Amino acid sequence: MEAQSPTPPAAGVDLSTLAITLLKGVIYREGDERLWSGLLNLQARVRDHVAILGLELVLDESEGYAFLKSRPEAAEDESAAKLPRLVARRPLSFPVSLLLALLRKKLAEFDAGGGDTRLVLTRDDILELVRVFLPDSSNEARLIDQIETHINKIIELGFLRRLKAAGGPAGFEVRRILKAFVDAQWLADFDARLAEYQTRLAGAGTADDE
Q: Which of 32, 99, 104, 179 has the most CB atoms around it within 10 Å of its CB?
């Protein structure tokens, strides 16, 4: 009986290509099937390779995304030399954090309902999600501008994708990678967090009006 050779990686996809692409951002199955297939075949080698850089591969095969995150520092090994952080931490404003939480809850409700796998919202849908938690404002245009700014930030972070409008209002796809950053435990404390956000944002809104 002949020994079976390991499955070869996708043509043209090598370890260096995968590592560099991951260092630049997220790999999505829907974005590049060939690259995704190569990552699945070489994921063990990718994990070993990025571990040298102090990074960890997060790969969700069912949802179709993969990205790198910094490995938790070993607190017990204080004598070990610390590597510089390659994946930067990005502090988020309260409105952006609030909107991410609301989108994550909407995604959970959407998944519970079954059906389509893509959650697409219009700008008005997003505005209604967050409006109740923002300070009262008589300036609707200003509120819309603020929401647009927050939406653009979330697109930049990779949690929303702007869809081309086909004669109707522009849509935004909620990227499923959001589930990796806002987990079930976070959602369990959702109501308490929203109360905190509402209080903080109300205070911020009062300061802005002065």
A: 99
* Side chain identity at residue 171, one-letter code: G
Q: What pLDDT was estimated at residue 129?
A: 87
How much is the pLDDT for 87? Answer: 52
Contact 150, 137 (CB under 8 A): no
CB atoms within 10 A of CB 42: 21
Return the pLDDT at 85.
52
Tokens of 164: 């081309």
- Tell me, what amino acid is at 59? L
Domain annotation for the chain: domains and CATH numbers: 1-89 (1.10.10), 94-209 (1.10.10.580)
What burial letters (b/e) apply to 144-173, b meaning 16+ CB within 10 Å?
Answer: eebbeebbebbeebbbbeeeeeeeeeebbe
Rounded average pLDDT over 167-193: 77
Token pair in block for residue 38? 């190569």
Distance CA 164, CA 152 (A): 15
